[in-house]
Amino acid sequence: MFLKMIQARVFAMMLVLTAVLPPLNIHAAENESPKSTDASSNSDQNLSLEQTLDNIEKHKLAIKDLETRADKASGLTDQALKSRLLKARMELLEQGLNFCKAVADLEAGGIKIDKYHQRAIEILGSQVNAANTTTAEIRQQMVFPEAGFSAAEQAAAYSRVFELLDTVNHAYEIFIEGLNLSRRFELDVTAQQTWFKEILLERAATGSIFLEMTMADVRALRASVSAVPGDTEIAAKLGVAVTNVSRIANGLSVVLTMMESQDMDITGYQQQLLGATGQITTDFLEVGVFTNLLLGWGETLWNVLIESGPGLFFKIILFFIIVFVFRKLAKLAHKLVETGMENADIELSLLLRRMILLVVRNTITVIGVLIALSQVGISLGPLLAGLGVVGFVIGFALQDTLSNFAAGLLILVYRPFDVDDLIEAGGVTGLVSNMSLVNTTILTFDNQTIVVPNNKIWGDVIKNVTAQDIRRVDLVFGISYSDDIPRTEKLLAEIAASQEAVLTEPETMIRLHELADSSVNFIVRPWVKKEDYWETYWAITRAVKLRFDEEGISIPFPQRDVHLHNPPQPVA
C-alpha cells in the first residue's frame, strides 16, 4: 500500500511538471505550401490559408460546444465527451501549427504576406495557453489503480495511464518542433529552451524514480510467486508489473532522446535503462556509458566476492569434488558390470553389452551431477521440470530418430545379428562393423562403409549368413553325355574328401542332379565351418577342373545345331 501511494505521488508530480508543455502534433508535409510566385498560385495559396483560418475558428466553436456538454454530463457520457474534447484540443493545436508552418514555407519561398505573418505569430503565442488547458485535461483523466485492484483492473487502469503519458511525451517532441518553427519566424526562444531543459531534467528524474519503484514491485512479486507458486492472481500482477517496467522504460527512452537533441547529459539514465531492459543500443558504446557500466559491474562483483566469496568458493570446490567422485564410481561400476557379463553364462549380444555399460556409467554420472548441483544451491525441481518439457519438444521433433531407436531396441532384444556377422538387410550385403540404437554400420565386400537406419533394417527381411557355426557349400559341375557317370561320382567324392576343411558330419552329398540341354550336372554339397566357406568353395572348384582335365572328362559348354535348308529353285 505504501509503495502504491508513493507511485501515485510521483505521477502527480510528473504531471504538474508537464502541465505547461504544449502537446502538439504535426503531420503537415513539407511540400504543402506551393512555391510558385505567379498570381494564380498566390491566389490559391491565399485561399488555402483563409480556409485553414476558417477551419481553426470552426474548431474553436466545436470545442466550446463540447465543453458546455461535458459540464452538464456525468458518468460514462462525461468520460466520452472529455475524451473527445482532448482529441479536439490536440487537433486545434495541430491545425494552428500547420498554418504557421505553411506561412513559414511561403516566406522561405520569397512570399511574405503581413497579415498571415502576424496571424502566425499570434497563433504561436497562444499555443502555450491552449497547451496548458490540454495538459490539465490529461491530468484530470488519469486514474491510477488502487492497492486493492485485481490484476485485470490494474492492467486496464495502467493501459489508460500510459496512453495519456505517451501523449505527454509526444508533446515534448512537438514542443521541440515548435521551437524550431519559432526560430524560422526569427523569434527569441532562449528562455523557452532553458525552461524546457529544466522540464526535461525533472521529467527524466521522475521517470527514473518511477522505473526504480516498479522494478522493486517486480522483485517483490517474483518473491511472492516463488513462495506461493499456485497463486494465479499474484502471477497475473507480476505480469502487469513487468509490462509496466517495459512501458516506463520506453517512455524514459523517448525523453532521453529529446535530452540528447538538446545536448544534455544522459549517461546515468542510460545505465538505468540498460539495467531495466537489458537492451544494448548504440548509446551503450559511448565511452562514458561504457566506462561507468564497467565500474559499476566491477564494484558489484567486488562486493559479492567480499560478502559471499568464501562460501561461493567452497561450493564450487564441493561441486567439482562430488562430480569427480561420481565419475570414479561410474568407471568402477563400468568395470564391475563388464566383468560380470563376461563371467556370466548368459549369452548377450555386443550391442546389448555396450548399452548396459553405457546406461550404468551415464546414470551414475548424471546422479552425481544432480547431487552436486543441489549442494551449490540450485533447485532440482524446476530443472527436472524444464528437462521434461525439453524432452517432450525434442521427442516431437525427432520422431524418425525415435522410430530408429525403437527398432534398435527390438534388434537388441531379438538379436537377429551381431557385430562381425555377414548379413543381407535393408538392401545391403556385408559385414556388420558397428551397431547402435539408431543405426547399423555395414562394411561391404568392396570395402565401402554403409550406415543403414535401424528402422529400415527391422522393417525388411534380414538374412544372417554367418549366424550358424557350419555352412553348406553348394557346387554344380557338368560333364558330357558321353562321359562315365560312376567314375565321375568317384572322382568328385575323392576331391571333396581331400579337402581338410570339409567336415565328416554332416556327410557330403554328391548326386547326379540334372540332365541339362548340353551337360549332365552333378551337385556337390560338403559342410564346412563358416569361416572356411569361401576357401573351400574356391579350392574344390579348382581341383575339379584340374582332375577332370587329367582324367579326360570334359566340361561341356552350351551347343546348338543349326540346319540350313535350300528351297527348290523354280524352272525357267
Description:
The chain is built from 15 helices and 10 strands. By secondary structure, it is an alpha+beta fold. Among the domains are: 76 residues; 49 residues, SH3 type barrels (Roll), CATH 2.30.30; 82 residues, Alpha-Beta Plaits (2-Layer Sandwich). The strands form 3 sheets. Strands 4-3-2-1-5 form a 5-stranded antiparallel sheet. α3 packs antiparallel against α4. The termini are far apart. The relative contact order is 0.05. The N terminus is likely disordered.
Shape: elongated
CATH architecture verdict of the domain at 470-551:
2-Layer Sandwich
Q: What is the H-and-E element order?
A: HHHHHHHHHHHHEEEEHEEEHEEEH
The level 1 CATH classification of the domain at 470-551 is Alpha Beta
List the helices and strands and how they pair.
Elements: H1 2-18, H2 39-72, H3 75-108, H4 114-141, H5 151-184, H6 190-227, H7 232-261, H8 267-277, H9 287-343, H10 350-375, H11 380-397, H12 399-414, E1 422-425, E2 428-435, E3 439-443, E4 449-453, H13 454-458, E5 463-464, E6 470-472, E7 475-479, H14 485-497, E8 509-515, E9 520-525, E10 527-529, H15 533-551
Antiparallel strand pairs: 1-2, 1-5, 2-3, 3-4, 6-10, 7-9, 8-9
Helix pairs in contact: 1-6, 2-3, 3-4, 4-5, 5-7, 6-7, 7-8, 8-9, 9-10, 14-15
